[in-house]
Design goal:
single chain; 6 helices; alpha/beta; 6-stranded mixed beta sheet
Amino acid sequence: MRILHILDHSLPLQSGYVFRTLGIVNQQRALGWEPVLLTSGKHYAPGPARERIDGWEFLRTPTPTGFAAKLPWLRELRPGILHAHSPALNALSAIRAGRRHRVPVVYEMRSLWEDAAGSGGTSNRLLHAQLQGGDTDRWWQGSL
């Protein structure tokens, strides 16, 4: 079974995100499945469109020009499953392509946006405190 993983970033960058991804694809390979790794246009490490690192081939997506990127190589690779890894923009591209090509989609959400923004230092502290304090309903209703 060929699984196309749609990633935010990958090797040669090193992060918890990358190591978790490698753990998943190594186990899939051990099961006899065929994981294929495609990075989004947000992958900022310079390199060629196809790059082999540590026994894995990474396919790179050009920077998107619209709201959601197109998934190159989809027709060529003919995956059985699209596995989109967070953030959600990867899922939007995968869902659109999956519907068009009739390929099932799995979305792996690794963290909630407010947690990711908080750990990255881009969060509004008041908003984060309100969401963590159970005021989510009032936030969505616009009364905070």
